[in-house]
Write a structure and sequence with these properties.
The complex is a heterodimer. Chain A is mainly α. Chain A contains 14 helices and no strands. The chains are: A mainly alpha, B alpha+beta.
């Protein structure tokens, strides 16, 4: 009897440990879901929601009412998938970067490279764009050099062009994020058992062989976890990058889902429709997460949720 | 055991901290509310009329402001000395439009609000604006504008017993049909020396204008510093603002032919509405004009991707040869350049008919109001401040600055000092509040009384460009040669003499606001028109230009353009009828 209550008290106490985090999740992840009600009303600030403004699924239907609107949604989805797909395709890049960084034997140089590649992560997209603008505008550094070398006779409109735009956006993203993303892999590499590497050296393995047979296989689990987390966020590219780079010339190719929602709501207050779009986004994300989890179970024998 | 207690305490602190952080951001408005409501009540006697013992922090929700935070510098000192009030400006232009939605949801927009007309009437209906009828009755300076203020308020939907809620901005004490300015908001302006340099030819139409600009650009491919210069440099920041649809720069150019874009509709010179998408109307015409300009190499290739700041920097550096907003000259025309004949000035195009609105007698549209939560002594002090804001003393501070620093009085007339105070942010002497002049300038950035109004103390308008002393000082080479060439003293005189000025009277009507459906349609239509228009300016050929236009019109029809057009015609017919009645 005494034991039981002691046990109960103990589990209650342990429950108390996680209670704060449960509360945080409830407040920041579940309470905002209440905002979804706006998708089912004709909402316009400053008037509060009243029952007579209930419109059911009107805003969901609105998205697919006619071919032009469907085209718009498909365009936005295409951009989202292309940009997310590209980052997924190149998601090994930070890992390889970390592996090679780790091979640099000159410590000051290694630290220097790591610092220089990590710093862009802390620069806001607004500043990144002002850098891009001053470098790439018609009288910017790049055009001035090209003109002075007589390689071109008219300035190139880099910021307006839509050529290779997904790739260019990926480059900006990588420039900003690669160093930061590599930190996780560097940590994983530090965790590799030194004895394995030393044993391989004794056996006469070359540097490339060590990388191929020891380093990479050891950090692959980390890589897979990160890839799967990214997959669940497939529809979330973040809007800041595309918000600052968008203009009337490239918008058809750069407007991703998050930016579309922002443009709809903040452009001039289409709150209900933008909430409806983001609900759909959440649903698709849940489906994607479930699919990847199922896929993981099939391939690796274990899920990650 | 000890460790566990520590862990528990830590996690509790974490929660407490995160909750506190969350509370702070959402409750800042009500914090200020409690702070002021706990202030001890004054005896309410006349002794407390101008200032009070305790400093009052007034939140100003201000859709006109470009600055967010507490007013500082010389204007803060002016207000503090007189009312012991500190102004805390909340600027949706800085903080983002979402702040409107969140603040209206909490029921407290601000102590003083400066709102666009549709927001204002929405807020009155939602009970967010205070009925100030009783306080207004004692506001002698505001009462000077009684006709305008009562006309506006009696037009508010649902306000049948004529209560006073809003005070229009930029009212004048002239008349609803008068036009007192010497220049209009939008007209073609060229550099006088360059225009003279190509022979100062007569310009018959838009093609003629492009020819002249082409000659100017060919003769001067760069500015004096050697940077490339262009006939036109456009910027996209303002597109789709203020309920306009399309590229803001193009929308402005349409007024050269007597037409005015009202949302999705165009009001023609003969009082008819046509859709924006009409190929015979001016939006198409002016878009084609810019397309032709680009074909001739006259458009800055950065137009469309540069921001307003970048465009202004080019204006100041002399990299732009055509201006079309009257404020643009502020970036170029210094007294020295005017004297050298290098000033930007209106160049007439024969077939044009310039549109302008008359003096904003009934106000420009925006409104001042008081938040519904403001009570008692605080309300009295705020009303006293607003009354002063409309007084000759208040207007002189807002429009002219500080006596002895910005102007001096000679024989009862004002004469300017330090005319670059704002442009160069000149340091203000410590006795007036210190800091830079521009930094300390009135951050509310909106006036109850327009600068064109007559200052009863001088008999001249408040705005310094209308002072006799200013006219005398600027009657130099640019102006004199221009007058000799066109035979009149001022641009507006030429327009009047040549029957090329269409003045729409100032009216005060309350227009219906967009419902949820129209809001979405307007947004999507606006984005489509804007994006297509920019691509059309940079189209490769006439055929591409026209196919882009047709595709745009087709897309607009699917996005509900007809519904929007019908809504806008109904909406602006109310305004048109009031204009016709005012003539």
């Amino acid at each position: 009897m005494v034991d039981m209550s002691k046990k109960k008290w103990r589990s209650f106490r342990e429950f108390l440990y996680i209670l704060p985090f449960i509360l945080i999740v409830l407040i920041f992840s579940y309470y905002p879901l209440y905002g979804w009600v706006y998708a089912f009303f004709d909402y316009k600030p400053p008037q509060a929601l009243t029952p007579d403004k209930f419109v059911g699924l009107k805003w969901f239907k609105y998205m697919v009412e006619n071919p032009v609107k469907v085209k718009q949604i498909l365009q936005v989805l295409r951009n989202t998938f292309a940009i997310s797909g590209l980052s997924l395709l190149f998601s090994w890049f930070p890992m390889i970067f970390a592996v090679f960084l780790n091979e640099i034997k000159c410590v000051p140089f290694k630290k220097f490279v790591q610092t220089v590649t990590t710093i862009p992560n802390f620069i806001s997209w607004v500043l990144v764009f002002s850098i891009a603008y001053s470098v790439l505008n018609s009288t910017g550094v790049v055009n001035t050099i090209l003109m002075n070398c007589h390689l071109i006779d008219r300035p190139i409109d880099f910021l307006k062009s839509t050529e290779h735009i997904y790739f260019k956006q990926w480059l900006w993203l990588t420039w900003k994020n690669a160093g930061w993303a590599a930190i996780m892999y560097i940590a994983a590499i530090t965790g590799i058992d030194e004895q394995m590497i030393e044993a391989a050296k004794v056996d006469g393995a070359s540097r490339m062989q060590i990388i191929r047979h020891i380093t990479i296989p050891s950090i692959l689990p980390t890589y897979f976890v990160i890839v799967m987390l990214n997959l669940a966020n497939f529809l979330t590219n973040g809007m800041e990058q595309f918000y600052v780079f968008q203009n009337s010339f490239n918008k058809d190719y750069i407007q991703v889902l998050d930016l579309y929602v922002y443009n709809l709501a903040m452009g001039s207050g289409g709150y209900s429709l933008s909430v409806a779009v983001s609900i759909l986004k959440s649903i698709v994300s849940i489906i994607l997460l479930t699919l990847t989890n199922g896929f993981s179970k099939l391939v690796r024998g274990e899920g990650f949720i | 055991m000890k460790k566990r207690v520590v862990a528990m305490l830590l996690s509790l602190t974490l929660v407490a901290a995160s909750l506190a952080g969350c509370g702070k951001t959402t409750d800042s408005g009500s914090n200020a509310g409690t702070q002021t409501s706990t202030e001890k009540k004054d005896d309410g006697g006349a002794a407390a009329s101008s200032s009070s013992d305790e400093t009052l922090v007034v939140e100003v929700y201000d859709e006109a402001a470009n600055y967010q935070g507490t007013q500082t510098g010389w204007f803060a000192k002016v207000v503090k000395d007189r009312f012991n009030i500190e102004l805390n400006i909340i600027a949706p232009q800085v903080a983002g439009d979402a702040v409107y939605q969140t603040r209206t949801a909490t029921g407290n927009l601000g102590d003083i609000v400066v709102l666009d007309p549709t927001h204002f009437s929405d807020c009155v209906q939602a009970g967010l604006i205070k009925d100030i009828t009783a306080e207004y009755a004692n506001a002698s300076n505001l009462k000077e504008f009684d006709r305008q203020i009562t006309t506006y308020n009696s037009g508010l939907p649902g306000n049948t017993d004529g209560k006073i809620y809003g005070i229009p901005c930029e009212m004048t004490n002239t008349s609803p049909t008068a036009f007192s300015d010497d220049v209009i908001y939008s007209s073609p302006m060229l550099r006088w020396d360059l225009y003279s340099g190509v022979g100062a030819p007569d310009i018959a139409d838009l093609d003629g204008l492009l020819d002249v600009i082409k000659q100017i650009q060919d003769a001067n491919p760069t500015n004096e510093a050697g940077d490339p210069a262009y006939g036109f440099s456009l910027w996209p920041d303002w597109d789709n603002n203020d309920g306009m649809i399309g590229i803001a720069n193009v929308v402005q150019l349409t007024t050269w032919y007597g037409e005015k874009i009202k949302g999705s509709a165009i009001l023609t010179a003969d009082d008819k509405f046509v859709p924006l998408t009409d190929k015979n109307a001016t939006y198409y015409k002016m878009l084609k004009f810019l397309y032709k300009a680009n074909q001739m190499g006259l458009v800055d290739p950065d137009s469309g991707s540069q921001n307003w700041d970048a465009a202004c920097a080019k204006m100041s550096a002399g990299q732009v040869y055509t201006f079309w907003y009257s404020w643009q000259v502020g970036f170029w025309n210094t007294q020295e350049r005017l004297a050298d004949g290098k000033g930007m000035i209106f160049i007439p195009v024969k077939d044009q008919n310039y549109y302008t609105t008359s003096d904003s007698y009934y106000g420009s549209g925006r409104l001042f109001g008081v938040g519904s939560g403001v009570e008692g002594e605080k309300l009295d002090r705020i009303m006293k401040f607003l009354d002063w804001y409309a007084s000759p003393e208040g207007c002189t501070f807002q429009h002219n600055g500080i006596e002895g620093f910005n102007y001096e009085i000679i024989d009862g007339k004002f004469s300017i000092l330090n005319d670059n105070a704002l442009m160069d942010n000149l340091p203000v002497p410590e006795e007036y509040g210190g800091a830079g002049y521009s930094d300390g300038n009135n951050a509310i950035n909106q006036w109850i009384v327009s600068a064109i109004s007559t200052n009863p103390n001088t008999g001249e308008p408040y705005g310094n460009t209308h002072w006799s002393s200013w006219k005398k000082a600027t009657a130099t080479k640019t102006k004199n040669e221009w007058s000799a060439r066109f035979g009149v003293a001022e641009p507006v005189d030429w327009m009047k003499a040549n029957n090329a000025l269409l003045v729409r009277p100032s009216v005060s009507v309350s227009l219906p606001s967009d419902d949820a459906d129209i809001t979405v349609i307007r947004n999507q239509v606006g984005q489509e028109v804007k994006d297509a228009s920019w691509r059309m300016i940079f189209a490769k050929s006439d055929a591409e230009f026209d196919s882009m236009w047709d595709e745009m019109v087709e897309n607009l029809n699917s996005l509900g353009f007809d519904q929007l057009y019908k809504f806008d015609v109904d909406k602006y017919t109310i305004e048109l009828e009031a204009m016709q009645a005012a003539k």
